[in-house]
Amino acid sequence: MSRALILMYHIIDEPQAEIERKYCCAPDRFAEQMRWLRSSGRRLLGLDELADCIDRRTPVEDGSVAVTFDDGFDITVRNALPVLSMHRIPAAMFLLSDRFGASNDWMEGRGFPRRPLLSAGAAQELLAAGVTIGSHTRTHPRLPEIEDARIDDEIRGSKASLEDRIGRAVNHFAYPYGRYDERAREAVHRAGYRTACSTRSGFNRLDEDRFTLRRIEVFGSDSLAAFRRKLRFGVNDPSLLVPVRYYASRVAARLGMG
């Protein structure tokens, strides 16, 4: 792997409240981003292909991109799946094994609107369209804050439950809130996942820990120009200062070498 990027989305919809604006990518903006990705010449790959590269220690094309979604919001089927299918873009959806057909109840206490999650039937629709299903635990806890036995159940148990529901191997995991500790990482390893995704930003290189892969979060406010900067520099910060700082550091490094 040279430098692969993993994108992270949550809700492909217009925001229903100000508090969720950051996590909502409007459908037309998502379509614009996917259209640009397909036309950009970048390699678009799934998590299984990325895991194969890690296993074999073989590089992928620099700047390759994988697309992922967290939480399993039902709106994804209507607003994202047709776009992914149109542009033949592989993607992965991280689901909560104990929340099929339920809602985002872990968010409601913080003032987020109630939104439905995928039913088991909708998950099968995603599978039929080629979307990879991964685990996001059973109930979306903050893993570093719970006891060892529950960590194991949330990680290993969710894998077994999802596999029973969808009839497919579940090989990929995403830490809720991006939070993990060594206990959670080891539980992911023991459970037999091939990869696990964090929310740390940056590129994934060949020596990256497969159980703490980096992702770039796409915000609802990201224009296409900001989206392209995120992919160019591997950062969550899309501001125009990013390329300025980047090229300034390159110049400083060259002057130092001289």
Largest sheet: 5 strands, parallel
Structural class category: alpha/beta
- Fraction in beta strands: 5-15%
Number of domains: 1
Widest sheet: strand ordering: 4-3-2-1-7
End-to-end Cα distance: 31 Å
CATH architecture: Alpha-Beta Barrel
Assign the CATH topology: TIM Barrel
Bulk shape: globular
Output mean pLDDT. Answer: 92
How many strands in all?
Answer: 7
Q: How many helices?
A: 10
Series of secondary-structure elements, N-terminal to C-terminal: EHHEHHEHHEHEHEEHH
CA-based gyration radius: 18 Å
Q: Specify the helix fraction band.
A: 40-55%
CATH class: Alpha Beta
Low-confidence runs (pLDDT<50, min 5 residues)?
A: 246-253
What is the CATH homologous superfamily assignment?
Glycoside hydrolase/deacetylase
Search tags:
258 residues; alpha/beta; TIM Barrel; 5-stranded parallel beta sheet; two-stranded parallel ribbon; 7 strands; globular
Task: Describe this entry's structure for a reader.
- It is globular and about 45 Å long.
- The relative contact order is 0.15.
- The chain has one domain: Alpha-Beta Barrel (TIM Barrel), CATH 3.20.20.370.
- The longest helix has 19 residues, at 148-166.
- The strands form two sheets. Strands 4-3-2-1-7 form a five-stranded parallel beta sheet. A two-stranded parallel sheet has the order 5-6.
- The protein has 258 residues and is an alpha/beta fold.
- Helix 7 (148-166) packs parallel to helix 8 (182-191).
- 40% of the residues lie in helices and 11% in strands.
